[in-house]
């Protein structure tokens, strides 16, 4: 039988309130970072955390080099079924919009995958979009990777405008997210 002791419920409520207040205080943005207005955080409305990774040819590619373009950063792995399902849509979107200022950085979570499997994935889907290797997981950690695929849409000023965790995400949904950004002046 459930307890109906009001003192027990009052105590529980007070403890829960203090725990919630403590969590809110601990997870706040530090005042020093908030005062700059430029907090690198993988959340909508915040600057996208910068990174530099090697591409399929071994050349370095930095997110910051894409300034002035609309960028889709997609975190994926070759063993991920939803990644395989959505990658053709991202490729199609890239081909249709790259001349309008769209860039795609398909970041393979190589620390959870293998480079050979990633290359085979790229070949099997005939991908021409830029594929980068996150060999040590640094980008996945900076972007707080919780599920694959994870997609971040970044505007021409480097601000994250949409975050999509999981997938597959359709071409129509992605086009709807990027269209207003592509129409903004560079």
Mean pLDDT, to the nearest integer, reads 88
What's the story with the biggest beta sheet? 7 strands, mixed
Secondary-structure element string: HHEEEHEHEHEEH
Which range does the strand content fall in?
15-25%
Which spans of ≥5 residues are poorly predicted at pLDDT below 50?
Answer: 32-36
How many whole angstroms does the radius of gyration measure? Answer: 20 Å
The coarse overall form would be: elongated
How is the quaternary structure best described? Answer: single chain
Protein structure class? alpha/beta
Strand order of the largest sheet: 2-1-5-4-3-6-7
Tally of strands: 7
Helix content: 25-40%
What's the arrangement of secondary structure elements?
Layout: H1 6-26, H2 31-34, E1 52-55, E2 60-62, E3 70-76, H3 81-97, E4 102-108, H4 115-124, E5 131-133, H5 138-142, E6 150-154, E7 160-165, H6 171-183
Parallel strand pairs: 3-4, 4-5
Antiparallel strand pairs: 1-2, 1-5, 3-6, 6-7
How would you briefly describe this protein structure?
The protein has helices at 6-26, 31-34, 81-97, 115-124, 138-142, 171-183; strands at residues 52-55, 60-62, 70-76, 102-108, 131-133, 150-154, 160-165. It is an alpha/beta fold.
